[in-house]
């Protein structure tokens, strides 16, 4: 579990960048959202967007990580009119391990604090809507990996046991014996380990990993 006790979260699929745009009085706000796994990746994405839109007046970033860390900046906009509205949209959608950068091209008319907040919010919401349309928002939950070594004669039976305990087999190595690796929602692996212990007459066949965030 992460620092804030989160059990699951939504993020943007690997390799996908969500883009949404909002215009107000000829000022263009372009939101770009990408999945990131660390502060370093978030900063790299911010740098990439700044280079992409080097002629824009502002590139407002906000990011949230699954360990609870988050950060935003107004990038020269009046205080709390850019970064915080973007961050609040990400929070409200239950997102983590994401970075959003909203690029603003000034249209010649001052929008005022209220107008800026609405525009940054709307652009971010448009990008999230695009990700939803493209089925590119994925849920990650705490999962636990279990690896066990078993004889070939037990392979089919153990596969069924994994399924009965709501897990899935993720890897199988066929050698002198069979090494099977399965993934479970954290907590569900305990039933499988107990079942394997009973199946092996008390022998411990399973190695249980630490819980991590992943897709089940």
Walk me through what this model shows:
The protein has 216 residues and is of the alpha+beta class. The protein has 2 domains: 8-135, Ribosomal Protein S5, domain 2 (2-Layer Sandwich); 141-214, Alpha-Beta Plaits (2-Layer Sandwich), CATH 3.30.70. It has helices spanning 39-52, 83-92, 112-133, 155-164, 189-199; strands at residues 8-12, 17-24, 27-35, 58-64, 70-72, 98-105, 137-150, 168-174, 178-185, 206-208, 212-214. The strands form 2 sheets. Strands 1, 7, 8, 9, 10 and 11 form a 6-stranded antiparallel β-sheet that branches. Helix 2 (83-92) runs parallel beside helix 3. The longest helix has 22 residues, at 112-133. The mean pLDDT is 92.
List the SSEs and their pairings:
Layout: E1 8-12, E2 17-24, E3 27-35, H1 39-52, E4 58-64, E5 70-72, H2 83-92, E6 98-105, H3 112-133, E7 137-150, H4 155-164, E8 168-174, E9 178-185, H5 189-199, E10 206-208, E11 212-214
Antiparallel strand pairs: 1-7, 2-3, 3-6, 4-5, 4-6, 7-9, 7-10, 7-11, 8-9
Helix pairs in contact: 2-3
């Amino acid at each position: 579990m992460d620092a804030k006790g989160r059990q699951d979260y939504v993020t943007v699929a690997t390799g996908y960048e969500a883009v949404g745009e909002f215009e107000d009085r000829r000022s263009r706000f372009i939101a770009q959202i990408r999945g990131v796994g660390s502060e370093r990746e978030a900063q790299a994405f911010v740098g990439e967007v700044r280079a992409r839109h080097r002629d824009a007046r502002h590139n407002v970033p906000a990011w949230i990580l699954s360990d609870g860390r988050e950060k935003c900046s107004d990038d020269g906009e009046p205080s709390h009119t850019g970064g915080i509205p973007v961050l609040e949209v990400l929070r409200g959608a239950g997102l983590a391990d994401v970075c959003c950068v909203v690029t603003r091209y000034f249209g010649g008319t001052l929008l005022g604090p209220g107008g800026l907040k609405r525009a940054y919010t709307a652009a971010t919401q448009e990008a999230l809507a695009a990700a939803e349309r493209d089925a590119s928002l994925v849920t990650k939950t705490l999962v636990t990996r279990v690896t066990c070594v078993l004889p070939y004669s037990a392979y089919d039976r153990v596969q069924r046991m994994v399924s009965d305990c709501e897990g899935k087999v993720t890897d199988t190595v066929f050698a002198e014996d069979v090494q099977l690796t399965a993934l479970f929602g954290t907590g569900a692996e305990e039933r499988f380990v107990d079942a394997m212990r009973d199946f092996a007459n008390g022998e411990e066949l399973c190695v249980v990993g630490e819980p991590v965030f992943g897709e089940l």
